[in-house]
Amino acid sequence: MKRIYFNEVVTRDGFQMEPEFVATDDKIALIDALSACGYAKIEVTSFTSPKAIPMLRDAEEVMARIKRLPGVDYTVLVPNLRGAERAFEAKADELNLVMSMSETHNRANLRMSMAQSFAAISEIIQRAQGLAAVNVSLSTAFGCPMEGDVPQAVVLGYAQRFVDAGVRGLTICDTTGMAHPAQVSRMADAVQTLAGQLQLTMHFHNTRGMGLANVLAAVQSGITRFDGSMGGLGGCPYAPGASGNVCSEDAIHMLDAMGYETGIDLDKLLAVARQMPDIVGHTVPGQVAKAGRISQLHPTPVAQA
Ligand code: COA
Ligand code: ZN
After folding, report:
1. What's the 105 CA to ligand 2 centre distance in angstroms?
2. CATH of 5-291, one of 3.30.300.30, 3.20.20.70, 1.10.260.40, 1.10.3720.10
3. What does the domain layout of the chain look like in residue ranges?
4. Which residue of 64, 115, 201, 299 has the smallest Cβ count within 10 Å?
5. Catalytic: 37?
6. Is the Cβ–Cβ distance between 12 and 45 less than 8 Å?
7. For ligand 1, is residue 87 a contact (CB within 6 Å)?
8. How many angstroms separate the alpha carbon of residue 278 from the centre of ligand 2?
């Protein structure tokens, strides 16, 4: 059965909106536990302004102290040139550069026009040669919470420019959960036609309950790489009403049940997922960590025996 690759983003996308600071030691212990679960990639942190995202102000220390397992790519989100310099210094395997596909969201999130972001990203791609792989995340690719529809042609236009610039991968992001499965299938077909030779990842949020349906639509259209967040934590600080990412363990459990090869040790993963409420101090949306795997049966109630 087809191999599916997961990128765990809980310690970046998952944590960035959490109100209570997660201790640096807890972040490191969590990433080390995730490394042992079989992920292809882990988005460890972001090199953003500590004023903008105080939760990730310990990015350098986290990158320095995690145990890097061979075979796992350790990637970091980078919003600008200053962030790229910090990421090179931290010896990240990959820089995940980000820009939005809508002007309003890009300005709110990155305080740059799309043209300025494109210029900065192009320069970082040049500088990254020989230092780190580059992935570009195209945010709000399925719709902008301020502007509404984002034409697929805009997304494909930027995708083509980044293919030409020589990136290793592209992530098509549904930053605020506006995508629906039919739209995902159309996008999956179009980006694979345009950039099938790259690592193509899809990044969904479950804001309107369509997260897993979108993963399924993408898989059935040939996409093999996904971002997910433990427990379904996550959100974008500049997207009103944003909520969690698609829950990693729920998505992996679903694909595993369907016979896809995810590379993940599901029992280990669920053991880590069950620690999430203690780590963040509240309940989390993920379902399978609460209900158990479908293979985990319950004793027949005595009255019916
Ligand atoms: N790392 C650390 N500090 C940074 C930085 C970076 N990548 N980029 C800017 N800064 C600092 C500057 O040094 C400056 O510090 P000072 O006030 O002490 O002098 C301050 O931030 C403002 O710098 P400026 O260049 O004016 O940046 P800005 O205020 O326009 O912020 C961003 C731009 C993108 C860095 C900031 O908005 C940000 O980090 N946003 C977070 C984006 C994000 O992660 N969104 C969610 C994920 S998509
Ligand atoms: Zn996201």
Report:
1. 13
2. 3.20.20.70
3. 5-291
4. 299
5. no
6. yes
7. no
8. 22
